[in-house]
């Protein structure tokens, strides 16, 4: 029985599907494509970054960073344990375990684009930060200034007590390299410094050399940024975040090849082609029987 030309095309498309997926997997081993500013004073925004709502957020320059990690126990410099976060009461379990900061216990490889603890595959993004502001004041209300000072608050229109900060992307620059991370906790030291986080005031904290951003071990390893050193950071929209190790793990992350192909969308499209092909086989079989 001769197959219709359209069915032949669908069958051919499905035949090359494994090669397409293999190409996507091979490409992911390449170095991540990041936008690296070329100057320090001032730092210029990426020239080709897609901007949502035509919004560019300003850089917070020369900010002291400190390293913290999920599961960290209280110390003199960090009196709050990090098994929980400001917005996740089961943070360590949701992450998948203790995010051991010891370099010997970590994978840190620019060639494979992999930065994570060795003992397990993270269920959340290992590129995370803490900034010194919390927008909620309990489970049923936001802080009075939140709607006024957070640039994306009205756009998100949250329910009372629902944070609009958790998971927000930031770009961090240090030593000629930049990476991207998500805001997952509040600190260091204070949780009400909105004038620094969203305004143009210097950080109010004076402890730990005036530390004003906490970075995860994966960020430390990717940038070579140690506690007490300076970095620049700014908020970015989701559409401005390029492919990289910060998109490799996490419950809300989709696998994306360096050319921008969404592998989940490709999988759904191929599944659609299979269903369409099977339906046409059934129709052709029924037509043949009637004849």
Describe the structure.
With 291 residues, the chain is α+β, with helices and mostly antiparallel strands. The protein has helices at 5-15, 17-27, 91-95, 146-149, 153-156, 194-197, 217-223, 263-290; strands at 60-67, 106-109, 114-117, 128-131, 169-174, 177-186, 213-215, 230-235. The strands form two sheets. It has a six-stranded mixed β-barrel. It has a two-stranded antiparallel ribbon with strand order 2-3.
Tally of alpha and pi helices: 8
How much helical structure, as a percent, in the residues? 25-40%
- Major β-sheet strand ordering: 1-7-4-6-5-8
Distance between the ends: 13 Å
- Strand percentage lies at 15-25%
Radius of gyration: 23 Å
Main beta sheet = 6 strands, mixed, barrel
CATH fold name of the largest domain: Barwin-like endoglucanases
Task: Give a count of the beta strands, DSSP E runs of length 2 or more.
Answer: 8
Per the principal axes of the C-alpha atoms, what is the gross shape?
globular
The CATH superfamily of the largest domain turns out to be RlpA-like domain
Low-pLDDT regions? 6-10, 16-34, 36-53, 253-261
| Domain unit count | 2
Write down the secondary-structure element order.
HHEHEEEHHEEHEHEH
**Broad CATH class of the largest domain:** Mainly Beta
Structural class label? alpha+beta
**Assembly state (oligomeric):** single chain
Q: Any guess at the CATH architecture of the largest domain?
A: Beta Barrel
